[in-house]
Structure formats: structure tokens, C-alpha cells
Amino acid sequence: MKNLDSRLDLLIHKIKQESPSARFRLQPQLGRLINEFAAQGTKVERDIKLLNEELQNEAIEAQFDNMPV
């Protein structure tokens, strides 16, 4: 579990350091880590779940940014 915790801490640090327009690209990694925590029966903190949801929303928005009008 310490390995998961350290991987999560590192990923959150990367997300915070990433530019707002590109940080959504790290969402799949965060989603996988959340799933790994769940598979081990470990509760994921609410703020981590909210961050994952926020990144998912940013990814959806990014898809529409490049659509022709």
C-alpha cells in the first residue's frame, strides 16, 4: 500500500505542476490508481475523487476546443 500511496503522491505533484491546458492528460493514470486502491479495499479520499472528476471534465472540454464550428 505504501507503494500506491507514494505513486499517488507523485502523480498529484505532477498534476499540480502541469499546465492547466494539459493536466487532463494525466487523468487516465489517476483513474488507474484509484481503481488499484479500490481493488485493495482501500478508501480513496474525497479530494482525490473530485480531482479525478475535474480532470475528466477537462478532457471532455478539450475535445470540444478543437471542433470546427
Count the strands? 0
Number of domains: 1
Radius of gyration using CA atoms only: 13 Å
Biggest pleated-sheet summary:
none
Compute the separation of the termini in Å: 47 Å
The total of helices stands at 3
Structural class comes to: mainly alpha
Report the mean per-residue pLDDT as an integer: 93
Oligomer, anyone? single chain
Structure notes:
The protein is mainly α and 69 residues long. Helices cover 71% and strands 0% of the residues. The chain has one domain. The chain is built from three helices and no strands. α1 (2-17) packs antiparallel against α2 (27-39) and α2 runs antiparallel to α3. It is elongated. The termini are far apart. The model has no long low-confidence stretch (mean pLDDT 93).
Summarize the structure.
The chain has helices at 2-17, 27-39, 46-65.
